[in-house]
Amino acid sequence: GTRSLDDGVTIQANGTDTEIIIGAETLTLRDNLPDAITADNFLFVVDPNFGDDGDNILIGDDENNTLSGFGGQDTILGGPGDDTLDGGDGSDVLSGGDGADVLFGRAGDDTLNGAAGADVLSGGSGHDRLIAGEGDTLVGGEEDDFVEYAAATAAVTVDLSLATAQIGAGDEVFISIEGVIGSNHDDHLSGDGGANTLSGGAGADTLDGGDGSDWLHGGDGADVFVIGVGGNQIADFAVGEDILDVSALGVQSFDDVTLTAADEHTVLTIGTAATTLLNIAPDDLTAADFAYETVVEEDPTPDPTPDPTPDPTPDLTPDPSPAPEDDAPTVVTTTTNVGDHTVETSVETSSDGVVRESRVIEAAAVDPDAVVPQQSVPIAIDDAVAVSLPAAVGIETTGRQDNLAPSAAVEEARAQTASLVSDPAEQARLDARVAQAAARFEAEDPEAEVSVQVLSPSVAADVTVEEAIQINGVTPESADVRQILVVDTSDLPTGSSIDLDDVDFVSFLGDQGLTVRGGAGDNHVVLGNGNDDVQLGEGDDTLEGGRGDDVIGSLGGNDVIYGNQGQDTVTGGADQDILFGGQDSDFVYGNQGLDIAYGNKGDDHLFGGQHNDTLYGGQADDVVYGKKANDVLYGSIGNDTLYGGFEDDVVDGGRGVDHLYGNRGNDTLEGGADSDWFYFSVGNGGHDVVNDFTFGEDILVVEGSGAASVAEFLADMTITETADGNTVISNEADFSITVIGQSAADLSTGTWLLI
Question: Which of 140, 329, 382, 511 has its CA at a distance of 20 to 30 angstroms from the CA of residue 688?
Answer without folding.
Answer: 140
